[in-house]
Amino acid sequence: MMNAEGRRARDFTVAEIFADARLIWDRRELADDEVSANHEQGWTSSLRKLEATVNCFFMRRSKKMPKFMFIYHGGGRPESAEEGARVMAAWQAWMGGIGEALIDGGNPAGMSKTVSAAGVADDGGANPVSGYSLVMAEDMAAAVEIAKGCPILENGAGTVEVAEAMEM
Description:
Layout: H1 14-27, H2 37-64, E1 67-74, H3 81-98, E2 102-104, E3 114-116, E4 119-121, E5 129-136, H4 140-147, E6 158-165
Antiparallel strand pairs: 1-5, 1-6, 2-5, 3-4
Helix pairs in contact: 1-2
């Protein structure tokens, strides 16, 4: 991504980023009638440069950090609306705690079929999938630590299989 001056976002230094942020902060206090065309153009350029730099930083970071699949097994459907609300709140709190490392919160899985060379089985296999999520973590150990907080583990109701999603 290029800015108005034709520089790539990765070419900016941290000092330039913070100088632009300070400039943007200082200009926010100018009244509309005090903002000249030059100020407006400079402000827009500064915002674009800052946005490009931040976007580039996060894109590079996400490419370096491995992705992990959380495959959920077991659990069960809530038996009442109150239990459903409690379970949903627990999942939302856990996923909220993962923060920006949560790439895709996933979905619960419905009934499945297992396809093999021998044919198709309706039972979902030996350990049917009940849902999935996709997260970023520094390594397998960090991903496992995140998975340990999963609500499906409460009372031994289910398990979380953690596997790295390999980049191809």
